[in-house]
Amino acid sequence: MNDIPARHTAGTVTDSALVDWADREASRRSTQLDRTEALRLLGSVSLGRIVFTQDALPAIRPVNHLLHHGEVIIRTHEGAALATLTEHADDTGVVVAYEADTIDPATHCGWSVVVTGYCHLVTDPDDLAHYQALLHPWTDHRMTHALRIRPDLVTGVRLSR
What we know:
Elements: E1 8-9, E2 12-13, H1 15-26, E3 29-32, H2 35-43, E4 47-54, E5 57-68, E6 71-76, H3 81-87, E7 94-103, E8 110-121, H4 125-134, E9 145-160
């Protein structure tokens, strides 16, 4: 594990030990991902975090998702904050961000993708049935709604050594 070094002088980390630790940590390379690669990676995992505004503050919820024709689809339940927001939104939808990643806890290498766009309630009964068959709930709520995020902005980063 890459913890801060344990060499201390009077309860503080020595300067040289801190520099050594920082140099090891800084050896990681950050590479920006293009839209195609970012969406490919997003589609390779099933869990992420939806970010939206609730009572003028940011709210984040872990959810499962699927990528379908370049759109992020999530399921939610009646009365959930984001479901309620999308039900009452105008035609533009609700601005959200969606993040997913795979980061190795030991090496801190991996990738992270964030899509930002507008979220809409899936209202077509055939689409809703299709997504309900593909996306299985992993909480104890009855997931009656599906939400569609159309990514306007897609960013991603790969962390490697």
